[in-house]
Design a protein that fits this description.
With about 325 residues, the protein is α/β, with parallel strands linked by helices. It has twelve helices and ten strands. The strands form three sheets. It has a four-stranded mixed β-sheet, with helices on one face. A four-stranded antiparallel β-sheet has the order 6-7-10-9, covered by helices on one side. It is globular. Bound molecules: pyridoxal-5'-phosphate. The site of pyridoxal-5'-phosphate has 10 residues, from loops.
Length: about 325
Protein backbone atom coordinates (compact mmCIF):
# COMPACT_ATOMS: atom_id res chain seq x y z
CA UNK A 1 0.00 0.00 0.00
CA UNK A 2 1.60 3.28 -1.13
CA UNK A 3 0.62 6.13 1.22
CA UNK A 4 2.56 8.88 -0.56
CA UNK A 5 2.89 9.48 -4.27
CA UNK A 6 5.91 7.90 -5.92
CA UNK A 7 8.54 10.49 -6.81
CA UNK A 8 7.92 10.20 -10.51
CA UNK A 9 4.29 11.36 -10.17
CA UNK A 10 3.64 15.08 -9.88
CA UNK A 11 0.49 16.11 -8.04
CA UNK A 12 -0.84 19.60 -8.76
CA UNK A 13 0.01 21.92 -5.85
CA UNK A 14 -3.66 23.02 -5.59
CA UNK A 15 -4.65 19.39 -4.95
CA UNK A 16 -1.73 18.85 -2.56
CA UNK A 17 -2.93 21.80 -0.48
CA UNK A 18 -6.62 20.83 -0.38
CA UNK A 19 -7.96 19.31 2.80
CA UNK A 20 -10.52 16.56 2.65
CA UNK A 21 -14.17 17.51 3.18
CA UNK A 22 -15.61 15.83 6.27
CA UNK A 23 -19.29 15.09 5.73
CA UNK A 24 -21.73 14.33 8.53
CA UNK A 25 -21.15 10.90 10.04
CA UNK A 26 -23.11 8.04 8.41
CA UNK A 27 -25.56 5.84 10.31
CA UNK A 28 -23.22 2.90 9.78
CA UNK A 29 -20.17 4.72 11.20
CA UNK A 30 -22.10 6.16 14.16
CA UNK A 31 -23.58 2.75 14.97
CA UNK A 32 -20.15 1.13 14.87
CA UNK A 33 -18.65 3.86 17.09
CA UNK A 34 -21.40 3.88 19.73
CA UNK A 35 -22.71 0.32 19.58
CA UNK A 36 -26.30 1.58 19.15
CA UNK A 37 -28.13 -0.38 16.43
CA UNK A 38 -29.00 1.55 13.25
CA UNK A 39 -32.77 0.99 13.72
CA UNK A 40 -32.64 3.02 16.95
CA UNK A 41 -30.81 6.02 15.51
CA UNK A 42 -32.15 9.45 14.51
CA UNK A 43 -30.09 11.14 11.82
CA UNK A 44 -30.27 14.94 12.04
CA UNK A 45 -26.73 15.84 10.95
CA UNK A 46 -26.83 16.22 7.16
CA UNK A 47 -30.07 18.08 6.35
CA UNK A 48 -31.55 15.02 4.65
CA UNK A 49 -35.31 14.61 4.24
CA UNK A 50 -37.01 12.37 6.81
CA UNK A 51 -39.69 11.61 4.18
CA UNK A 52 -37.37 10.38 1.46
CA UNK A 53 -38.36 10.25 -2.19
CA UNK A 54 -42.01 9.94 -3.24
CA UNK A 55 -43.19 6.31 -3.45
CA UNK A 56 -43.73 6.87 -7.17
CA UNK A 57 -40.03 7.76 -7.54
CA UNK A 58 -39.03 4.42 -6.04
CA UNK A 59 -41.48 2.69 -8.35
CA UNK A 60 -40.24 4.55 -11.45
CA UNK A 61 -36.64 3.61 -10.61
CA UNK A 62 -37.64 -0.05 -10.21
CA UNK A 63 -39.76 -0.10 -13.37
CA UNK A 64 -37.04 1.36 -15.59
CA UNK A 65 -35.39 -1.25 -17.80
CA UNK A 66 -32.64 0.58 -19.72
CA UNK A 67 -29.93 1.12 -17.11
CA UNK A 68 -27.50 -0.45 -19.58
CA UNK A 69 -27.82 2.62 -21.82
CA UNK A 70 -26.12 5.97 -21.29
CA UNK A 71 -28.44 8.80 -20.25
CA UNK A 72 -29.83 11.24 -22.83
CA UNK A 73 -26.86 13.57 -23.23
CA UNK A 74 -29.19 16.52 -23.84
CA UNK A 75 -31.33 15.59 -20.81
CA UNK A 76 -34.34 16.74 -22.84
CA UNK A 77 -37.04 15.27 -20.60
CA UNK A 78 -35.43 16.60 -17.43
CA UNK A 79 -34.82 20.05 -18.92
CA UNK A 80 -38.43 20.25 -20.04
CA UNK A 81 -39.64 19.41 -16.54
CA UNK A 82 -37.18 21.90 -15.00
CA UNK A 83 -38.29 24.63 -17.39
CA UNK A 84 -41.85 24.23 -16.17
CA UNK A 85 -40.73 24.18 -12.54
CA UNK A 86 -38.44 27.21 -12.74
CA UNK A 87 -40.59 29.06 -15.31
CA UNK A 88 -37.43 29.66 -17.32
CA UNK A 89 -36.62 28.40 -20.79
CA UNK A 90 -32.89 28.98 -20.72
CA UNK A 91 -31.15 25.59 -20.91
CA UNK A 92 -30.22 24.44 -17.41
CA UNK A 93 -26.74 23.00 -17.12
CA UNK A 94 -25.97 20.24 -14.69
CA UNK A 95 -23.17 19.52 -12.24
CA UNK A 96 -22.27 21.86 -9.47
CA UNK A 97 -18.70 21.94 -8.29
CA UNK A 98 -18.25 24.14 -5.30
CA UNK A 99 -14.83 23.42 -3.78
CA UNK A 100 -13.50 23.11 -7.33
CA UNK A 101 -12.27 26.72 -7.21
CA UNK A 102 -9.13 25.87 -5.28
CA UNK A 103 -8.62 22.74 -7.32
CA UNK A 104 -8.79 24.83 -10.49
CA UNK A 105 -5.96 26.99 -9.22
CA UNK A 106 -8.07 29.98 -8.19
CA UNK A 107 -7.54 31.60 -4.82
CA UNK A 108 -10.50 31.90 -2.49
CA UNK A 109 -11.10 35.11 -0.56
CA UNK A 110 -13.43 34.57 2.39
CA UNK A 111 -15.41 37.62 3.46
CA UNK A 112 -16.81 37.26 7.00
CA UNK A 113 -20.50 37.96 7.53
CA UNK A 114 -21.68 40.59 10.01
CA UNK A 115 -22.25 39.73 13.68
CA UNK A 116 -25.82 38.59 12.95
CA UNK A 117 -24.68 36.57 9.91
CA UNK A 118 -25.90 39.01 7.27
CA UNK A 119 -23.90 39.22 4.05
CA UNK A 120 -21.59 42.24 4.32
CA UNK A 121 -22.10 43.73 0.85
CA UNK A 122 -19.82 46.73 1.36
CA UNK A 123 -17.04 44.55 2.64
CA UNK A 124 -17.38 42.21 -0.34
CA UNK A 125 -17.33 45.13 -2.80
CA UNK A 126 -14.28 46.61 -1.04
CA UNK A 127 -12.44 43.29 -1.21
CA UNK A 128 -12.85 42.83 -4.98
CA UNK A 129 -9.63 42.91 -6.96
CA UNK A 130 -9.28 43.22 -10.73
CA UNK A 131 -8.77 39.45 -10.86
CA UNK A 132 -11.87 38.54 -8.84
CA UNK A 133 -14.07 36.43 -11.11
CA UNK A 134 -16.84 34.97 -8.99
CA UNK A 135 -18.85 35.93 -5.92
CA UNK A 136 -20.43 32.82 -4.37
CA UNK A 137 -23.23 33.06 -1.80
CA UNK A 138 -25.67 30.58 -0.25
CA UNK A 139 -29.30 31.58 0.24
CA UNK A 140 -30.65 30.28 2.57
CA UNK A 141 -27.20 29.95 4.04
CA UNK A 142 -25.84 26.75 5.54
CA UNK A 143 -25.39 26.58 8.52
CA UNK A 144 -26.83 29.94 9.65
CA UNK A 145 -30.20 29.46 7.91
CA UNK A 146 -30.80 33.08 6.84
CA UNK A 147 -31.47 34.31 3.29
CA UNK A 148 -29.87 37.12 1.32
CA UNK A 149 -31.95 40.21 0.56
CA UNK A 150 -32.58 40.63 -3.16
CA UNK A 151 -31.28 44.22 -2.94
CA UNK A 152 -27.92 42.89 -1.72
CA UNK A 153 -27.69 40.51 -4.68
CA UNK A 154 -28.55 43.37 -7.07
CA UNK A 155 -25.78 45.50 -5.52
CA UNK A 156 -23.28 42.67 -6.02
CA UNK A 157 -24.44 42.14 -9.63
CA UNK A 158 -23.58 45.80 -10.30
CA UNK A 159 -19.93 44.89 -9.71
CA UNK A 160 -20.00 43.05 -13.04
CA UNK A 161 -18.54 39.91 -11.45
CA UNK A 162 -20.35 36.60 -11.91
CA UNK A 163 -22.57 36.18 -8.86
CA UNK A 164 -23.39 32.54 -7.99
CA UNK A 165 -26.29 31.98 -5.61
CA UNK A 166 -26.50 28.48 -4.12
CA UNK A 167 -30.22 27.89 -3.55
CA UNK A 168 -30.03 24.27 -2.30
CA UNK A 169 -32.58 25.12 0.44
CA UNK A 170 -34.79 27.60 -1.42
CA UNK A 171 -37.92 25.40 -1.33
CA UNK A 172 -37.97 25.66 2.49
CA UNK A 173 -37.73 29.46 2.46
CA UNK A 174 -40.27 32.27 2.52
CA UNK A 175 -39.59 32.89 -1.18
CA UNK A 176 -39.45 29.37 -2.64
CA UNK A 177 -38.98 30.63 -6.20
CA UNK A 178 -35.74 32.34 -5.17
CA UNK A 179 -33.89 34.44 -7.71
CA UNK A 180 -34.54 32.24 -10.75
CA UNK A 181 -36.67 34.89 -12.46
CA UNK A 182 -33.76 37.36 -12.40
CA UNK A 183 -31.42 35.08 -14.35
CA UNK A 184 -32.68 36.10 -17.84
CA UNK A 185 -32.16 39.78 -16.96
CA UNK A 186 -28.47 39.60 -16.02
CA UNK A 187 -25.41 38.39 -17.91
CA UNK A 188 -23.65 37.59 -14.63
CA UNK A 189 -26.20 35.85 -12.37
CA UNK A 190 -26.04 32.08 -11.78
CA UNK A 191 -28.44 30.15 -9.54
CA UNK A 192 -27.56 26.62 -8.38
CA UNK A 193 -30.20 24.18 -7.12
CA UNK A 194 -30.31 20.61 -5.82
CA UNK A 195 -32.88 17.83 -5.41
CA UNK A 196 -30.93 16.50 -2.42
CA UNK A 197 -32.82 18.17 0.41
CA UNK A 198 -36.40 19.14 -0.49
CA UNK A 199 -37.01 16.16 -2.80
CA UNK A 200 -35.31 13.59 -0.56
CA UNK A 201 -32.87 12.53 -3.30
CA UNK A 202 -29.48 13.19 -1.64
CA UNK A 203 -28.30 9.67 -2.46
CA UNK A 204 -28.95 10.06 -6.18
CA UNK A 205 -26.73 13.15 -6.71
CA UNK A 206 -28.98 15.27 -8.87
CA UNK A 207 -28.88 19.04 -9.14
CA UNK A 208 -29.13 21.76 -11.75
CA UNK A 209 -28.09 25.29 -12.49
CA UNK A 210 -29.76 28.31 -14.07
CA UNK A 211 -27.18 30.13 -16.17
CA UNK A 212 -27.02 32.95 -18.70
CA UNK A 213 -26.71 31.17 -22.05
CA UNK A 214 -23.16 32.38 -22.65
CA UNK A 215 -21.97 30.75 -19.41
CA UNK A 216 -24.03 27.59 -20.04
CA UNK A 217 -22.25 27.13 -23.36
CA UNK A 218 -18.85 27.12 -21.61
CA UNK A 219 -20.17 24.79 -18.87
CA UNK A 220 -21.30 22.30 -21.51
CA UNK A 221 -17.83 22.33 -23.03
CA UNK A 222 -16.11 21.87 -19.68
CA UNK A 223 -18.25 19.13 -18.16
CA UNK A 224 -17.62 15.42 -18.46
CA UNK A 225 -20.18 13.53 -20.54
CA UNK A 226 -23.07 11.86 -18.69
CA UNK A 227 -22.42 13.55 -15.37
CA UNK A 228 -25.99 12.97 -14.22
CA UNK A 229 -26.90 9.30 -14.19
CA UNK A 230 -30.13 7.80 -15.51
CA UNK A 231 -31.55 7.15 -12.03
CA UNK A 232 -31.08 10.85 -11.25
CA UNK A 233 -32.98 11.81 -14.43
CA UNK A 234 -35.87 9.44 -13.62
CA UNK A 235 -36.14 10.53 -9.99
CA UNK A 236 -36.06 14.25 -10.77
CA UNK A 237 -38.62 13.98 -13.59
CA UNK A 238 -40.94 11.87 -11.42
CA UNK A 239 -40.57 14.35 -8.54
CA UNK A 240 -41.47 17.31 -10.75
CA UNK A 241 -44.43 15.38 -12.16
CA UNK A 242 -45.86 15.11 -8.63
CA UNK A 243 -44.75 18.46 -7.32
CA UNK A 244 -47.74 19.01 -5.05
CA UNK A 245 -47.01 15.82 -3.12
CA UNK A 246 -43.36 16.72 -2.54
CA UNK A 247 -44.28 20.26 -1.57
CA UNK A 248 -46.66 18.82 1.03
CA UNK A 249 -43.63 17.11 2.63
CA UNK A 250 -41.75 20.40 2.41
CA UNK A 251 -44.62 22.15 4.22
CA UNK A 252 -44.48 19.51 6.98
CA UNK A 253 -40.75 20.16 7.37
CA UNK A 254 -41.27 23.94 7.49
CA UNK A 255 -43.98 23.49 10.13
CA UNK A 256 -41.79 21.13 12.14
CA UNK A 257 -38.89 23.61 11.85
CA UNK A 258 -40.88 26.13 13.88
CA UNK A 259 -41.68 23.50 16.52
CA UNK A 260 -38.01 22.45 16.63
CA UNK A 261 -37.06 26.12 17.06
CA UNK A 262 -39.40 26.46 20.07
CA UNK A 263 -38.06 23.24 21.58
CA UNK A 264 -34.43 24.40 21.21
CA UNK A 265 -35.32 27.86 22.48
CA UNK A 266 -36.91 26.37 25.60
CA UNK A 267 -33.55 24.85 26.63
CA UNK A 268 -32.01 27.46 28.93
CA UNK A 269 -28.49 26.81 27.65
CA UNK A 270 -29.24 27.04 23.90
CA UNK A 271 -29.79 29.98 21.55
CA UNK A 272 -31.25 28.85 18.21
CA UNK A 273 -31.10 31.09 15.12
CA UNK A 274 -34.22 31.56 12.98
CA UNK A 275 -33.88 29.50 9.80
CA UNK A 276 -35.23 29.48 6.25
CA UNK A 277 -33.73 26.03 5.58
CA UNK A 278 -34.50 22.50 6.79
CA UNK A 279 -32.06 22.84 9.68
CA UNK A 280 -31.47 25.08 12.67
CA UNK A 281 -28.17 26.38 14.01
CA UNK A 282 -27.98 26.74 17.78
CA UNK A 283 -25.32 28.06 20.12
CA UNK A 284 -24.53 26.79 23.59
CA UNK A 285 -24.80 30.08 25.47
CA UNK A 286 -24.35 28.93 29.08
CA UNK A 287 -20.75 29.01 30.34
CA UNK A 288 -21.55 26.07 32.63
CA UNK A 289 -22.54 23.80 29.73
CA UNK A 290 -19.88 22.42 27.42
CA UNK A 291 -20.76 21.40 23.88
CA UNK A 292 -18.94 18.08 24.45
CA UNK A 293 -21.38 17.34 27.26
CA UNK A 294 -24.35 18.09 24.99
CA UNK A 295 -22.88 15.87 22.29
CA UNK A 296 -22.27 12.99 24.68
CA UNK A 297 -25.82 13.02 26.06
CA UNK A 298 -27.41 13.42 22.62
CA UNK A 299 -25.31 10.59 21.20
CA UNK A 300 -26.21 8.30 24.09
CA UNK A 301 -29.78 8.76 22.87
CA UNK A 302 -28.74 7.63 19.39
CA UNK A 303 -29.14 11.04 17.79
CA UNK A 304 -26.70 12.39 15.20
CA UNK A 305 -26.27 16.17 15.01
CA UNK A 306 -23.74 18.30 13.16
CA UNK A 307 -20.86 19.80 15.16
CA UNK A 308 -18.14 22.10 13.87
CA UNK A 309 -14.36 22.12 13.99
CA UNK A 310 -13.71 25.76 13.09
CA UNK A 311 -12.68 27.67 16.25
CA UNK A 312 -15.38 30.32 15.66
CA UNK A 313 -18.09 27.63 15.58
CA UNK A 314 -16.91 25.50 18.49
CA UNK A 315 -20.01 26.22 20.63
CA UNK A 316 -22.50 25.58 17.83
CA UNK A 317 -24.52 22.62 16.70
CA UNK A 318 -26.77 22.22 13.68
CA UNK A 319 -29.95 20.17 13.79
CA UNK A 320 -31.69 18.99 10.62
CA UNK A 321 -35.48 19.14 10.79
CA UNK A 322 -36.80 15.59 11.10
CA UNK A 323 -40.17 14.10 11.96
CA UNK A 324 -42.22 15.38 14.94
CA UNK A 325 -41.15 12.31 16.91
CA UNK A 326 -37.49 13.15 16.23
CA UNK A 327 -37.98 16.64 17.69
CA UNK A 328 -39.65 15.12 20.77
CA UNK A 329 -36.88 12.59 21.32
CA UNK A 330 -34.17 15.22 20.85
CA UNK A 331 -36.04 17.40 23.34
CA UNK A 332 -36.02 14.58 25.90
CA UNK A 333 -32.26 14.14 25.44
CA UNK A 334 -31.53 17.89 25.69
CA UNK A 335 -33.67 18.21 28.83
CA UNK A 336 -31.28 15.83 30.64
CA UNK A 337 -28.47 18.39 30.46
C1 LIG B 1 -26.65 20.25 0.83
C2 LIG B 1 -26.15 21.45 0.13
C3 LIG B 1 -26.06 21.46 -1.28
C4 LIG B 1 -26.50 20.31 -2.11
O1 LIG B 1 -25.42 19.53 -2.47
P1 LIG B 1 -25.66 18.26 -3.40
O2 LIG B 1 -24.28 18.00 -3.85
O3 LIG B 1 -26.59 18.68 -4.48
O4 LIG B 1 -26.24 17.18 -2.55
C5 LIG B 1 -25.60 22.59 -1.91
N1 LIG B 1 -25.24 23.68 -1.20
C6 LIG B 1 -25.33 23.72 0.14
C7 LIG B 1 -24.96 24.97 0.88
C8 LIG B 1 -25.77 22.61 0.85
O5 LIG B 1 -25.84 22.64 2.18
Amino acid sequence: MYTSSPRITRVRPELEGLTEYFPGESLEAFSKRTGIPIERLIKLNSNESPYGPLPSVIKALGDYRNYNSYPDADATALRTALSAYTELDCPPTFSLYTSITTFCGASVLEIPRTANYEVDVNRILAALTPSTKLIVLCSPNNPTGNSIAEADVLALLESGRIVVIDEAYIEFSRRPKGLAQLVPNYPNLVVLRSFSKWAGLAGLRIGYGLFPVWIARYMLRAQCPFEVNVAGHIAAIETLAHLERVLADVRCIVQERERLFEMLNSQSYLTPFPSQGNFILARVCDANVMIEQVRTVVEEHGILLRYFQQPSMRDFLRVSVGLPDHTDRLGEALAKI
